[in-house]
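ERR on first pass: missing label on line 2. Operator R.T. fixed the label and resubmitted. Corrected input:
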Amino acid sequence: MKYINEIRIGDHVNSTYLCKSKTSGVTKTGKNFESLVLQDKTGSVDGKIWDVGSAGIEDFDALDYIDVVAEVVDFNGPQLNIKRVRKCREGEYDPRDYLPVSSRDIDEMYGELMDLVGLVRNKYLKALLEEFFVKDEDFIKQFRFSSAAKSVHHGFVGGLLEHTVSVAGLCRIYADKYKFLNRDLLITAALLHDVGKVREFSSFPENDYTDEGNLLGHIVMGSEMIGEKAKNIAGFPLSLENELKHCILAHHGKLEFGSPKKPALVEAVALNYADDLDAKMETFKEILNGTTEKGSWLGFNKLFESNLRATIGEE
Amino acid sequence: MKYINEIRIGDHVNSTYLCKSKTSGVTKTGKNFESLVLQDKTGSVDGKIWDVGSAGIEDFDALDYIDVVAEVVDFNGPQLNIKRVRKCREGEYDPRDYLPVSSRDIDEMYGELMDLVGLVRNKYLKALLEEFFVKDEDFIKQFRFSSAAKSVHHGFVGGLLEHTVSVAGLCRIYADKYKFLNRDLLITAALLHDVGKVREFSSFPENDYTDEGNLLGHIVMGSEMIGEKAKNIAGFPLSLENELKHCILAHHGKLEFGSPKKPALVEAVALNYADDLDAKMETFKEILNGTTEKGSWLGFNKLFESNLRATIGEE
Amino acid sequence: MKYINEIRIGDHVNSTYLCKSKTSGVTKTGKNFESLVLQDKTGSVDGKIWDVGSAGIEDFDALDYIDVVAEVVDFNGPQLNIKRVRKCREGEYDPRDYLPVSSRDIDEMYGELMDLVGLVRNKYLKALLEEFFVKDEDFIKQFRFSSAAKSVHHGFVGGLLEHTVSVAGLCRIYADKYKFLNRDLLITAALLHDVGKVREFSSFPENDYTDEGNLLGHIVMGSEMIGEKAKNIAGFPLSLENELKHCILAHHGKLEFGSPKKPALVEAVALNYADDLDAKMETFKEILNGTTEKGSWLGFNKLFESNLRATIGEE
Amino acid sequence: MKYINEIRIGDHVNSTYLCKSKTSGVTKTGKNFESLVLQDKTGSVDGKIWDVGSAGIEDFDALDYIDVVAEVVDFNGPQLNIKRVRKCREGEYDPRDYLPVSSRDIDEMYGELMDLVGLVRNKYLKALLEEFFVKDEDFIKQFRFSSAAKSVHHGFVGGLLEHTVSVAGLCRIYADKYKFLNRDLLITAALLHDVGKVREFSSFPENDYTDEGNLLGHIVMGSEMIGEKAKNIAGFPLSLENELKHCILAHHGKLEFGSPKKPALVEAVALNYADDLDAKMETFKEILNGTTEKGSWLGFNKLFESNLRATIGEE
Amino acid sequence: MKYINEIRIGDHVNSTYLCKSKTSGVTKTGKNFESLVLQDKTGSVDGKIWDVGSAGIEDFDALDYIDVVAEVVDFNGPQLNIKRVRKCREGEYDPRDYLPVSSRDIDEMYGELMDLVGLVRNKYLKALLEEFFVKDEDFIKQFRFSSAAKSVHHGFVGGLLEHTVSVAGLCRIYADKYKFLNRDLLITAALLHDVGKVREFSSFPENDYTDEGNLLGHIVMGSEMIGEKAKNIAGFPLSLENELKHCILAHHGKLEFGSPKKPALVEAVALNYADDLDAKMETFKEILNGTTEKGSWLGFNKLFESNLRATIGEE
Amino acid sequence: MKYINEIRIGDHVNSTYLCKSKTSGVTKTGKNFESLVLQDKTGSVDGKIWDVGSAGIEDFDALDYIDVVAEVVDFNGPQLNIKRVRKCREGEYDPRDYLPVSSRDIDEMYGELMDLVGLVRNKYLKALLEEFFVKDEDFIKQFRFSSAAKSVHHGFVGGLLEHTVSVAGLCRIYADKYKFLNRDLLITAALLHDVGKVREFSSFPENDYTDEGNLLGHIVMGSEMIGEKAKNIAGFPLSLENELKHCILAHHGKLEFGSPKKPALVEAVALNYADDLDAKMETFKEILNGTTEKGSWLGFNKLFESNLRATIGEE
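pass 2 clean. output:
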């Protein structure tokens, strides 16, 4: 396979790419053509199909993986003049070649998540966590694959899992350090704080807000999902369910960030700080990854409301 | 019955009052006594029980209705020196003599509410409304009796019903006027927008925030209640359920007012305006009711962020 | 007449258009030419006059209606190569072919406005309304023709009238519903709330902020206009004039929206809600008019601070 | 005359005071009495009239100057037991003994104001200033006597004049320093910027917001007053009137401070700075006047949003 | 010694207390007396010296430790009628009996701080830390004794040390977890982030803002102190000094919280989160310590902008 | 010398320009070339060096002054095809031909600054000013040459000096007018308020934020510089140093504008107003300088949050 960042004008290409978008057009002479954007993990490239009805051009849609045969021409940079195209079947390609993925192994992270589940001793909370992370296979599959965001931070396959394990790990440390925190409640809330995101974002490669994501948001959906699972557990104490839901609802910390309640419990405060810190650290890391030169200023960043730079540290 | 605003120093009293609060104390000479605050719809008065263990003093708690025999003494104004007291049974008193109540008849308002239900033609929404307002007797009882607020506006028995009928009536008018509004969705959302308040506030005479009210709030609880009822209705379209929940979630109009989502549908915008207008009109009305003189300035009001006055209008 | 959205490369055109702008240039060879933007209600198109001094090219200015004879050439799309041009006289064209206009009939709306005037029983307020809407012919002409905004909402011929009738209609309903509102004051204030806009915007086709519009704004100018008219009415009570002016000054509801006073009278509160609701409904309607697909998200909207979508409603 | 700060328990008093307030009461034995607050420039003291109907007690109202004969008794400090009282005629007392007054001579300040008027060379602006400060005797009388605020700064007789002269003096200096400022416009605007305050505040001793002050505010009223005077001057250029009014409307600098327009002209910017600086300097001066010890912290001040202290400067 | 919370009316007292305040007065009969507030770690009590000039009454000032002989009388609760008083010498009393102190041992915490210093490997940063925490004995004494605040959180003897160790401990964990953080810079910044507080607050028992604390604040003073110490270290890299100072200046995270710069380095971001979390946890802990009942709501808290309650957790 | 705004296609050019930027590229045929931006005070122009290694092309860097020989070709406007280039030595060119400079003479302004220094009578403050403006030659050179900003206002050679003299001149006037201001402190603070800018901005022609400028800011650096100089003056009173530093720290007036302290001294308030006024006047002047037509609206300006226009004034 030829990665997109290796394509040069004049090449002949025969490879599989993810078709990010597909639109139809009409030339000045009245002929139909199609414009594609092809993507793999190294970048994206434009492609054109001029002979739409011809033999080698099979049916496919945007977001399909397609096998293309093309000549690379120069049109303000390389452009694929596509001669043949067909839709690939699952198994013919490895999605990790085409999508942003976590740098950490998903199974390993899931193992860490289960270790954290193992720390919870309250029988109701433990049972609730198992409803999500052990028994609900559809949820598990989505949760492992999902991103934690459309862009911003952790916007890659496995991102939701990576962020969740990291936040819950911080919360475990906070519970050790600040003894008055309710350890079981805090770890459980951390592990569940973003479960609503499996419904807020469509799965990769699209990874965009769903209709219910836009209308309801992951905070309210996450609280609802907890309520539904808790119904399956006999004797789940109502006050415990409400405290847990409160932590989910309040975890953005401020009304203007979309939490319908400000943190009223100390565990909700701690969760808010852990979530926010992990998001900011990952965001800054992703910004720094794009730079090579220590000590150079990166320009004004809207999220941090500051001009940023990488630390020099010592000489 | 002697109303509290008619009690004079030197009177002998034998009447039933609501015991708003009850606390114990010890005199300088080491004797136990109890301090009460007694209330009816005309005001409140302090009472003392000096002979706590004596024959005529039966057991009761704060928020009980109690029958008292007392002499009225002067202690910076009238105070009841209580000789005998007993807890009343339901039926011995009429709560409307003791609590703030709507000036409108509750049955009549409920009839108007059912008329509005009758306007909804979408079969799923109509079925949902009936789940609440026809089939769920516990809910109906609470809804008719509940207030719409702890203080601010509509803070009286029947206030939730009065406010709901008023907002839904406005929405009906808006749907007639702005034809692009979805009439069924808007009226349904209006009728259900505050149903979570039956769980946010404890019932009268307490009428204070409940634990779940503080932790979750009526917006999220209302959305959940709708989700639970919708499960009982076969084939309820998911997109319709989400649109309806969105209207509930967004009806405060701004994140900083506790809505986890800003209005994204035009019906959510309209509902927000109707709810806000009705609340402001009722609040202003309650402020004006406390004044007698047209044209006099009432001082700075925090909600309206302005010095207010009653209108003179014409001469 | 050939509408602009029907013009094709290679066409010969002989039609009347509104000249939106006109600028002079010099070719590389040193020859003068003129660049025009021509407009009708279907869109706009560029035009060039290469032979500026030639016989068929008569004098005209930007914002004149002009009759052009031209060939349509291809210059990144169609462009009119104008051979002949002359300024049209009033009567030769129908402005509604060239400008955005209300979808409602202006006479009919004015009739509704007069019906609302007829509801006012206070003799001073009625006389004041007649000073504006019956006796002042210049004002009436401007008011019927004016827009309610430069862009945003009701930005079309008749928009001010349409918005005014709609807001006053809402206020009439509010006065019926909330009996403590002073009906005469509220309807009068609604009918006059935006009269300053006839001075804030220049007339169509320009429809831009005037100098005094920028310096003083329609709120203050509207209050002044009321003061001037009230002087013509013997015995107009001062407190009534001040209450009415207050409603005008406060109708934006917040200082940061340009009102020099927050609403202090309940009628000022009600007017603010009516004005705001009508503006938001019209704005949302104009946004939805641009979309065809129910259920599709329209992207983030600055005014509503939300991603918006059209309602699906039922299935 | 015995000043209030010299009154001691046991004194016999026969002096004239301003009656700040007067309320009626009933004793426990059912007898009518009257409670007064008496004021002079040194402070205030309570007084009681126990024999309301007796011979020496003549009619008077709150805000009258009254001559009292009284014994000073001890009631948590001195209290006047009033035996005789009568209302004084104008001329019997000097208001400056009873009201806060400017430390500067009013005639001298008015002379400075007229010098500033003399600097204006534009004939229309000069004529306008003379309409106010030379020809309108009622206005002049009010303007000389009025305060610039209810409390805050310059809240004393002559305060409006003192503040006006000071602001206009600053503007004169700014016009000398920043040559691109229009000197005539700026000085005129400074002299007229607060003329609306003669209608916003009632005259001393009351010095409270008037009804129209609350409803319209001095900014809008000042602009209107200018419009009315300008009508008397033949040929007053409209653009000049609008620029001047704009400076008045914008002189608070921000919408949230009650200006309906932000400064759009450089003179409006300069006027805003001069007005704000003079108000802040006077406020700080009044705060410092209440302190004796250099270097001591005065506590958090709301207006300055800071703990304040007097400067030590040098040692 | 009799602790203040054990004093009863009728007791005879002979103990040492901290004199929190001392004011002079004159009785109605013209005699001088002195009013004291006496304090120990269990509370405070009023005292009076009626015979100011008598033999047993020696000289002392507010904030002295004094030995008193007194009778306890009843004046709306117990009050000390002081017969004899003398100022104590250092050594006669243990300040920990009179002041709020950390619940942790100061030497132990200082040991932890030195362990954290030991982790820093960069030779310049290590040398700088030793300038403060090893070599500067005056600083060390103040730092160990100082509070971290006037009230809010850690407002007790040893509070600054406790908070510093806690924040630096968090930062050590963050550096382990987020590998791209510069560990040496972050730990150093954490250990020094509040050193300016030894100059911002006067020492106990006063513990109030100093003059320079009010004028300059601990953020700027801390940055200056670092600059001065760094001058003592040959070859200290300028960029490293600036990065460290930046972390100090930015550690409040937002301009409106008194940081003159927003965090621009990732270590400054991490420090801000650690500082804020530790402050919030300690504050919540202090709030919870005042309550006994799990599950009861504690009322609206300004810092957290929420009604708070202790967690129930499980049943 | 041929100024850049006089260069025409086809010209032969032999002149000295400032090389604002320099980047390398590779042509499609694999040959190296260099792209330059050349600048003088009249504008900027692109240049290309196609024969990078040829004889006439000597070494130089961005921000050097270079002497070029070139032909002017047409590439969407004039472009210099550079044949020969060499770096100039200091003295071969006059920087004022290449950089924005103050319209006022630098020596004359420095004379005014020294006059202001001469007004200060407090011996410590006078000595401090002389440390900066008389004794520190490096500082003086930088201060005379520096700009007061990267863009916004006074962004030219001599701008810092011009702004400083102007602000201190205003403060002198304020001290004359408001007698309670400490004249020596205020004038000293004004003269030193922006000294940190010589370190915040790199020198011309770059004039960009330095690393320490970004990390620490001119406010904190200015305060530090004062502290360092004060150390050289025996007996400099600490309270005076702190008051002066406070004025520097607080001179932006609000925390959100980067001041770590709000003004607590009246001189800090006055300095804030003088600084802000001078900045706004200069900014408005620079905006007006770009316009020719009196009375025309200049569009929305972000700094002034308003559409602006030049004043017409009179007719």
